[in-house]
Amino acid sequence: MATFSQPTIEKGSDMVLDFLCSTCEEKKLKESADYYCESCVKFFCQKCIDMHSQLFTQHSPHGSGDMKKWPVAKKVEDCLLKCDVHKEENNDMFCKDHSQLCCHKCAILNHRYFF
């Protein structure tokens, strides 16, 4: 699964998590990824993508401008699925009244209707 470096803050104070280059990470280096190759299921920095593109001419890596085609990292997925109150529980219900995802414990304690 993808590995992150520290979060960075971009314009508008949105937090962006940087993916690490898979090749550099294998060498114990922490280099931010600029590309993702769906065929290899790996991330590459600018330096490593050049070699990758020479070796795998049929692959079409996605640059950072096309991140919607990059996978959601496990840490992000876990963050979205886990209940903020009951950390051990997954959000598995939706409260229409509050337009909010919640776990079954929160649904019983804080929400009348959950569907």
UniProtKB/TrEMBL annotation:
Q: Which GO terms describe its molecular function?
A: zinc ion binding
Please indicate if the UniProt record lists Zinc-finger as a keyword.
yes
Location of the B box-type domain: 20-60, 78-115
Alphabetized, the UniProt keywords read: Metal-binding, Zinc, Zinc-finger
Claim: Zinc is one of the keywords in the record? yes
Listed name of the protein: B box-type domain-containing protein
Species per Swiss-Prot/TrEMBL record? Dreissena polymorpha
